[in-house]
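Q: Given only this backbone (166 positions), what sequence would you predict?
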């Protein structure tokens, strides 16, 4: 987890965002973390965001990015704070086997709604986090990233630092 946070921090340090960060888009090798499926990666000062991109899996979308997509803002331009949210959501999914948000507690079956409807729900409703104690000390760090407003969300480097701490 720390290596992944460090890799995302290094990417962000260069001004890049992966754009579609999710559990299956990284490979952990003995030497480093490698990103795969980088088709939506972009650097705001070097490239224009694609008008084709509609966001990654809804379960991993930061509420502000889901709101932007729902409001029809194109191109969809993932930000570093939105990607930190996706990083935290991906790690949550990886350690618990569940998506971070507890859709059932608000009466939603995410398997029965379309991605656009799910994005709208994420954009407009406060959905609580799953209560899970798979790894409480780690989940506390992830919960901070998943519940903070974009402007207060920790960076990937800060998450790595918190995860390194006993």
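A: Predicted residues:
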């Amino acid at each position: 987890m720390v290596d992944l946070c460090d890799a995302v921090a290094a990417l962000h340090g260069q001004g890049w965002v992966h754009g579609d960060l999710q559990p299956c888009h990284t490979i952990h090798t003995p030497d480093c973390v490698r990103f795969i499926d980088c088709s939506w990666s972009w650097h705001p000062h070097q490239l224009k965001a694609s008008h084709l991109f509609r966001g990654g899996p809804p379960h991993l979308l930061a509420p502000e990015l889901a709101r932007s997509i729902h409001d029809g803002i194109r191109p969809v331009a993932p930000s570093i704070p939105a990607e930190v949210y996706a990083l935290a959501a991906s790690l949550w999914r990886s350690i618990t086997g569940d998506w971070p948000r507890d859709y059932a507690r608000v009466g939603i079956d995410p398997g029965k709604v379309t991605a656009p409807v799910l994005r709208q729900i994420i954009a407009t409703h406060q959905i609580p986090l799953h209560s899970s104690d798979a790894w409480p000390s780690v989940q506390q760090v992830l919960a901070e990233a998943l519940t903070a407003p974009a402007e207060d969300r920790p960076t990937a480097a800060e998450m790595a630092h918190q995860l390194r701490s006993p």
